[in-house]
Amino acid sequence: MPVPALGAGPDPGMEEEAASGDGTEPWLANSNNNAAPVGWPCRRGEEPSYLQRVLLEIVESERTYARDLRGIVEGYLGKIIDAQEPPLRPEQVSALFGNIEDIYELSSNLLQSLESCACDPVAVAVCFVTRSQEFDIYTQYCNNYPNSVATLSECMRSKQQARFFRECQEEMRHVLPLGAYLLKPVQRILKYHLLLQEIAKHFEHKSGDDYEVVVEAIDTMTCVAWYINDMKRKHEHAIRQQEIQSLLLQWKGPDLTTYGELVLEGSFRAQRARSERAVFLFDKLLLITKRRGDHYVYKSHIPCASLMLIESTRDSLGHGVYGVGGLGAPAHLMLPLPPPQAKSAEEKRVWTHHIKRLILENHHAIVPQKVRAHTPVSPHFCPGVGDILRCHPLPLTDPRLLPPARPRRPSWRWTCSPNAPDHPSRPPLSPRPPHCPHTPSSLRYPCRPPTPAPLQP
Q1: Which residue range or ranges hold the DH domain (predicted)?
Q2: Do β-strands 307-311 and 319-323 pair in parallel, antiparallel, or remain unpaired?
């Protein structure tokens, strides 16, 4: 089961707020033993600004999130571990909860830091920047989430295990079942950069060191969200690649994993063939097969280093893919099938884009930079975050992020300003997480969107 779209809707199971009774605004019950907020000026009789409301929302939602994580760790996982006869097997426990304890510890520590920030948006931003590397643990949780859903479904088919989960839910007075709470970390990690964006939108002085810290926090959490999305995509493609390998008949070559990641797959018609061909494009290979029931029968393959792409002059939607040399027999495909027209045009654009990219990447000779500059490769945008972060040009890996069908081809100039000096009242900022694939180590925050250079006549 695929992981739900990152940045999903509102968190389930929100608890009721409890008034503090001291004249301040209502706060959520602090049941996870973290310190109460200090210095927040939102007292009754005073109308808080929009920025203060955003900061309040960040702290309150983090407190609710940490409390829900505590319910999972203590109300479910703890009881399973402490039971004399555990209702779940060890492998089920590992698959169901993943590293939820690490997630809870990080959220609790982050909440303590946020509560000590008073109503200072810069201090709130620093809390995220200094913990940028710690958020990497969400990658493991998100990759394991499909296994968690499958394990929970398996457990609910057992009367004994289903009764155990219902008893735990009733004891904690949770309205929603365990599955809704296991989804929370997947939702939460993609909300941080959206909340920080609201701070930046309503920041009073959008210049200077303080604003740069807020921008750095947005970039940091955007990069974390992009990385998790990318790792999830690679994880799903790796599973699909193993599935293709297990269903492939009459293939005598090496394991498909030796040809890199799965980039695209689709059905097309081949010259002198009565039936369609199921085609799989890997980083280093174009695999051509024929469907036979649930299996794929190997027909041919073309190394990407030997690919040729020729546009059909008789059919505006036709593209010919030829193989020159290589171990497989030369093949000719027409991409894509005619109906429906709109989908075919989009499919043709996606396939031709990636084939051109892989031809260049796998070419035996050194391709001159001028030739690469005329290849329609666009900057790699972070999924779901618009134009916030564009750090350096990379080949697109998500077809939804491809440029328009008739793209202009500017050459990009990249401008990055160095870090602003740390404010004396703030802890030093941590460097960009080492796993972030966006920016070379020679560049530093904050990174500015590129400015298109004038087109050459």
Answers
A1: 50-231
A2: antiparallel
Instruction: Please answer whether residues 110 and 129 qualify as being in contact, where contact means their C-beta atoms are separated by less than 8 angstroms.
Output: no
pLDDT of residue 259: 92
Q: pLDDT tens digits for 36-61?
A: 344 445 555 567 788 889 999 999 99
**Joined tokens for residue 402:** 């491809």
For residue 273, what pLDDT band results from cuts at 50, 70 and 90? confident
β-pair partners for 335: 319
Which strands sit side by side in the sheet containing 285-292, from one edge to the other? 248-249, 295-303, 285-292, 276-282, 262-270, 332-335, 319-323, 307-311
Opening angle at CA 368, ends 365 and 372, nearest 5: 105
Residue 447 φ then ψ, to 5°? -95, 130
Which runs of E-coded beta strand occur in 196-270? 248-249, 262-270
Token couple for 31 = 């049941």
- Rounded Cα gap, residues 6 and 74, in angstroms: 26
3-class SS of residue 452? strand
φ/ψ (deg, to 5) at 322: -115, 150
d(CA 59, CA 114) in angstroms, rounded, equals 6
Instruction: Give the DSSP H or E segment for 362.
Output: helix 341-362
* Whole-number Å distance between alpha carbons of 82 and 408: 63
The share of the chain scoring above pLDDT 90, in percent, equals 40
Report the amino acid identity of residue 442.
S
- DSSP annotation of 408 reads -
Distance (Å, whole) CA 73 – CA 97: 9
Note whether 378 and 219 are within 8 A (CB): no
Compute the Cα dihedral for 14, 20, 21, 23 and give only its sign: negative
pLDDT digit string, tens, across residues 89-131:
999 999 999 999 999 999 999 999 999 988 899 999 999 999 9
44 burial type by CB count under 10 A (0-12 exposed, 13-18 middle, 19+ buried)? exposed
Residue 298 Ramachandran class (φ > 0 left, ψ -120 to 50 alpha, else beta): beta
Return the sign of the alpha-carbon dihedral for residues 442, 444, 450, 453.
Answer: negative
Predicted TM-score (pTM) of this structure: 0.60
DSSP 1-58: -PPPPSS-SSPSSPPPEE--SSSB--EE--TT-PPPP-S---BTTS---HHHHHHHHH
- As a whole number of angstroms, the distance between CA 178 and CA 330 comes to 54
Cβ count within 10 A of residue 56: 17
Higher pLDDT, 363 or 397: 363
58 within 8 A of 114, measured Cβ to Cβ: yes
Round to whole Å and give the CA distance between 57 and 131: 20
